[in-house]
Input
Amino acid sequence: MIRRLSSALLLSMGMLVGCGGSSSDSQAPAGPPPYPPQGSTWQWQLLGALNSEYDVFAYDIDLFNTAAETIASLQQQGRFVICYFSAGSYESYREDAGEFLDSELGNTLANFANERWLDTRSSNVRAIMRARMDLAAAKGCDAVEPDNVDGHINNTGFALTRENSINYSQFIAEYARSLGLYVGLKNNVGLAQTLEPYFDFAVNESCFRFNECARLAPFVDAEKAVFHVEYLSVAEVGSGELQRVCAQTEPLGFSTLVLPTALNDAYRFSCSEQ
Output
């Protein structure tokens, strides 16, 4: 298991400055040198029986659906384990779904009928997310991938602002780090410059498709890993689209995969493992 130094230990070493609640002008929490290393190989699978046979540095898996024993087994193989959870949406099928208040549930996410946006300003929502990160630590995850933290640019049903999203992301990152967990910024490329100091790596979907890869330069410049996926069909891969993606992302140091949108290991193509 790979864990960062806890906030308490860093404080005792005089490495943390500032205190109090999160805000966009608060001091970024101290952390170790960039880790995981930039360019690390990885696999991302959230659905289906986990295929643990890939010889990669990191595995990104579902927090709720993955047993602690599976996480330990991956780590025994030398894998860095990232645990996925949604930090910004209600998922009706999660074991803690009943803990959210009706007033905290907003509009349905596009293409995800069982998910609704959350009011991330809510103290109850934040308490639930702390509990999720506590679960990640208890299961032995090395890192967390909190999804859906870009409510300010989506039709959530709430009047969430850019400042709200910054504050919430800082809250997530600071609490994860206090547990000794590494933490990744999921998508939210418009806030990459502001939030990079708070996050250890980035996880991005479809920056090539949306012509946004350059916006992750703050992570690249800080020598932090960018775990990147494009969703292409096997036919598109065969037509040369994989090569076009890799030609753009490899010079940036991205760890690029092409996967099915279901993230079920139906197929997998990697720029670095061709």
